[in-house]
Design a protein that fits this description.
188 residues; mainly alpha; 9 helices; DNA-3-methyladenine glycosylase; metal-binding; DNA-3mA_glycosylase
Length: 188
């Protein structure tokens, strides 16, 4: 249900409102940017998204701007460094998955592919559901496209990704536009 400002979410916190207004549902291309989004979606699992938004600057510093080549070279010492960094979510499985995901991006590059092409090959034919949902209860948690994307990412070496996380990333990266009816940021 839209909030008092008409936003479908994000009122009550300027950081969350800015994310809603300028990022969520906006198409993202670029392997570094997509790696960041997929890693942050994995870190968010089980937590509130605002927690990740608050920690995003620290994540970007800790993970070298999510540069795939740099993160792929992280070793056990880096894992321990990250586990000691109070500015990020200190979860070994999620940290190790982020490193594995960066290595998977490099493997894609070695095969002449990009994460951008892989991800966007799973975009649905129509970005916007017609009619638009009025409440988030009407928005699916997974779709056949998110299941296929998660499967291909796993096959490519990505970890900590399933159909639900893949769909959340598809929303965040603009493969789908799930802003609710009446939201002022609805795309044309």
């Amino acid at each position: 249900m839209p909030t008092t400002t008409g936003r479908c979410f994000g009122d009550g916190n300027p950081l969350y409102a800015e994310y809603h207004d300028t990022e969520w549902g906006v198409p993202v291309r670029g392997d570094t940017e997509l790696l960041e989004r997929f890693c942050l979606e994995a870190f968010q699992s089980g937590l509130a998204w605002i927690t990740i938004l608050r920690k995003r600057p620290a994540f970007r510093t800790a993970f070298a701007g999510f540069d795939p080549a740099v993160v792929a070279a992280f070793d056990d010492d880096d894992v321990e460094r990250l586990l000691g960094d109070a500015g990020i979510v200190r979860n070994r499985a999620k940290i190790e998955a982020s490193i594995a995901n960066a290595r998977a991006v490099l493997a894609l590059w070695e095969d002449g592919r990009t994460l951008t092409d892989l991800v966007w090959s799973h975009a649905p034919e129509h970005r916007v559901r017609t009619p638009r949902a009025v409440t988030f209860a009407e928005v699916p948690a997974t779709t056949p496209e998110s299941a296929a994307l998660a499967k291909e990412l796993k096959r490519s070496g990505f970890r900590f990704i399933g159909p639900t996380t893949a769909y959340a990333a598809m929303q965040a990266c603009g493969l789908v536009d799930d802003h609710l009816a009446g939201c002022p940021t609805v795309s044309a």
